[in-house]
Amino acid sequence: MKTVIMAGGRGTRIADYSKKLTGKVLPKPMIPIDDVPVLEWEINSLRDQGFTKFILTISYLAEEIMDYFGDGSGVSPVTGKPFGVQIEYFHEHEPLGNAGALYKLRDRLVDEADGSEDFLLLNADSIFDLDFQRLVVYHRAKGGKATLFTHPNSHPYDSGLIIAAEDGGVEKWLTKEDVRPEYYKNRVNAGVHVLNVAALDEVAKVSGIEVSQIGRVQKDGKIYKVDLDRQILKPLCGRNAAGGYNVYCYDSPEYVKDMGTPERFEAVAKDFKAGIVQAKNLSHKQKAIFLDRDGTLNKYVGFLRKTDELELLSGVAEAIQKINASGYLAIVITNQPVVARGEVTFEGLEEIHRKLETELGKEGAYIDALYYCPHHPDKGFAGEVPELKKDCTCRKPKPGMILQAAKDYNIDLASSWMVGDSEADIACGKNAGVHTVLLSRETTDDYGQEVTVDNLLDFVEEHMEA
C-alpha cells in the first residue's frame, strides 16, 4: 500500500514564524520539532508500522523537501539514521487544488508489488501519531471506497461535520457553509484518509470532474482545480446503488491536529515534547476518566426525557477541557432505563446526547466516547419495551460498559478513574478495577470510594493536576 502525503501548501500564516524559528522561510512540513522536521516525524511513524512507499505532492519551496529526503534511500541530515523508505514526488508547478494531483497520479497510486488499490492520503499540515494498521484493517472490513479518520475537537461549531449511521456509514458531510442541525455529534474529519483508486473514477462521473482539464487555464482565466472535500469525498457520501455506503468514518481519539498557525504549531509542539502525541496512539495503553452523566455532567432532574431538560453543571466544560489536555480520555458511562421503560426512543436519547456534545463543544470541550445501557431488569410497566427488560451485563453497577470501552480503546484500567454521584457508580468502578471518585457534598457518604469531592472540576484540579 502506498502513502500519499500532501506537502505543497504555501503556509502563509506560518512563514514568518518558521523564519524566526530557524533563520529561513520553510515549507510547513519542514518546520522542526526537537530539531527534526515534522514531515520526518510523520514518515518515521509510518515506516515503523510497515508503510514504506511514499508519494509526496510538493509545490512551494519544493527543493527544501526534495534535497532533504531525496528518494528515501539516504540518511537523515539531522539524526544520521537511514530513512528506510522509497519516496516519489509529484511537483505541482501550477496549483491543482488539494486533490487535482490525485488524478495526475492515478496510475501510480496502485501498489504493483501487492496489487493494493487502496492508499493512505494524509495532510502534511497536521501533527499525527496513530495506529495506521488498525485504520487499514477497519477500512478493508467495511469494504467502502473511502474511510475518513474522524474525531471530536474543541471547535466543532466552525468545523466540517460528519453525520454517520450506527455502522459508521457516512450519510452526510456538512461543510462549514452548510446548514447544520441545532444539536450534532462532535465528529470532525481530521484529514487522514484511506481511499481506493476506484473512488476517483466514480466521483469524476458524479461530480462532473473533467480530468483532462485539471491544471489547464479555462476561458475565465482560472486554472481548473479539484477540491478533495467538496468534489470527491462529499459527493461519495450517502447510500450507494447497492444500499450500502461508499464512505465510512473511523472514530478514534488518537492525536491529529492542524499546525497551520504559529499558535497551533506551538501547542502541538508542546504536546509532542510532553509525549502526549505519541501516547495517544492506540497501539499504546490509554488512560481514561469514566464519567457518569446525570448529576455529574448535567443537572439531575430524575429521569431525563427531553433535550431541553439537559443543562450542564457549572464548571463541567472547564473540567473536561482539562481532561482533554491531560492525555486522559473522557468517556461517558450512563444507565438510561428510560429507553426500556418506553419513555424515550433510541433516537430521542441520541438527540439528548447530541445536545450534550454540542453544548460542550461551544465551551471548547469534548468527550471521546459515550456508552449507555438502555436496559432495566424489572418488568410489568405500561409502555415498556419487552426486549430491553432484562438482567444485562452493562447496567451499572456491573462493569460491562467500562470493560467494553477498555477493549475498544486499549485502556489500562488500573490507571483510570470512574467519577460519579451514586453508589452504583462507585461499585461499577470497583468492579471494573479502576480508581473511584464520589461527587458529594455529604462527607459521611461512604461507598468505598477513594476520593470524595464536591464536583468534577474539584477532582480535576485537586487530584489530576496535583
Helical residues, percent = 25-40%
Can you tell me the overall shape?
Answer: globular
Kindly name the structural category: alpha/beta
Cα gyration radius (Å): 24 Å
**Number of alpha- plus pi-helical segments:** 14
Compute the separation of the termini in Å: 45 Å
Uncertain residue segments: none
Strand-residue proportion: 15-25%
In what order do the strands lie side by side in the largest sheet? 5-4-1-6-11-8-12
State the total count of DSSP E strands.
Answer: 19
Q: Main beta sheet, described?
A: 7 strands, mixed
What integer is the average pLDDT?
Answer: 95
Keywords:
about 475 residues; alpha/beta; seven-stranded mixed β-sheet; 14 helices
Structure, described:
It is globular, with a radius of gyration of 24 Å. By secondary structure, it is an alpha/beta fold. The chain has a 7-stranded mixed beta sheet. A 6-stranded parallel beta sheet has the order 16-15-14-17-18-19, sandwiched between helices. The protein has a two-stranded antiparallel sheet with strand order 2-3. Helices cover 29% and strands 20% of the residues. α10 runs parallel beside α14. The chain has 14 helices and 19 strands. It starts with a strand and ends with a helix. It has helices at residues 15-22, 38-48, 62-69, 100-104, 132-142, 197-207, 228-236, 262-273, 276-279, 316-326, 346-362, 400-409, 423-432, 456-464; strands at residues 2-6, 32-33, 36-37, 53-58, 86-91, 118-123, 126-129, 146-151, 161-164, 170-174, 188-196, 247-251, 255-258, 288-291, 329-335, 369-373, 417-420, 435-439, 451-453.
